[in-house]
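Structure (tokenized):
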């Protein structure tokens, strides 16, 4: 089983899962490593009023205790999923330095103050305009920010788009290509996120053609994550993920320790 490097616990505003449940599941599945990556999204609040932030000292302390508890069974890595957002530059730039994280995912969840998870976004930017605007912000973020390890779920906007453009991803290369090129050239990784597969979508994020393209452009750092917000989703569809990555030209996938990539044969 591949190691899962995108896992949420109740330190995330949108999860109620105790960290120990994720750890127990990782041990039961026989993973060698698992990385918790709870959300920091400055300024974002759930409908119930929970903020997408946590105290890094408390988080580190609790996760280190858990790592100790499970030592010898699997290696718990401690990471964060940092929301890249040009409107919250200060948090994006400073947060990775606030604790000795193993791994930082940089993800775009918010575009012009709106989360595409909510229908309002596609009312403001209907259909393809919404997809276009999302990729424009991703491109801005990969040019603006450096301090993250992998770019999370590129093309995640398609999970929420009212319909998938028939010409996706071919006709969108003018936007996706510079993003992938920038990641490859600056030594940033790409994440393959399997959450969409268990929601019945035909592909994970990003689309296999974008995975292949990143590889073609010289990109080598590729982490795999389920984006599990509850333990039964941990490692979901990872057998399929491995097949997809092999078909896209990857022979290795990546995990991280102390912000340094470790390569493992697929
Ligand atoms: Zn995310
Ligand atoms: Zn996530």
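Design, position by position:
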């Amino acid at each position: 089983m591949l190691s899962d490097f995108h896992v949420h616990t109740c330190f995330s505003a949108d999860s109620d899962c105790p960290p120990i449940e994720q750890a127990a599941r990782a041990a039961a599945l026989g993973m060698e490593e698992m990385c918790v990556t709870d959300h920091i999204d400055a300024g974002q609040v759930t409908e119930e009023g929970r903020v997408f932030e946590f105290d890094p000292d408390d988080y580190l302390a609790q996760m280190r205790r858990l790592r100790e508890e499970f030592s010898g069974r699997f290696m718990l890595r401690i990471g964060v999923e940092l929301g890249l957002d040009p409107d919250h530059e200060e948090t994006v730039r400073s947060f990775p330095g606030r604790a000795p994280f193993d791994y930082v995912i940089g993800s775009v969840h918010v575009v012009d103050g709106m989360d595409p998870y909510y229908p309002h976004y596609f009312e403001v930017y209907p259909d393809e305009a919404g997809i276009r605007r999302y990729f424009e912000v991703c491109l801005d973020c990969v040019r603006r920010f450096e301090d993250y390890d992998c770019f999370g779920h590129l093309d995640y906007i398609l999970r929420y788009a009212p319909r998938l453009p028939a010409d996706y991803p071919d006709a969108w290369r003018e936007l996706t290509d510079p993003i992938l090129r920038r990641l490859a050239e600056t030594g940033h990784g790409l994440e393959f996120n399997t959450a969409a597969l268990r929601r019945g979508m035909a592909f994970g994020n990003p689309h296999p053609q974008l995975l292949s393209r990143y590889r073609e452009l010289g990109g080598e750092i590729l982490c795999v994550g389920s984006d599990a917000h509850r333990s039964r989703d941990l490692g979901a569809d990872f057998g399929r993920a491995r097949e997809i990555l092999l078909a896209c030209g990857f022979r290795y996938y990546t995990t991280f320790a102390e912000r340094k990539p470790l390569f493992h044969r697929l």
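Reviewer-requested clarification: The first helix runs from residue 19 to 29. Residues 81, 107, 109, 152-153 surround zinc ion (ligand 1) (CB under 6 Å).
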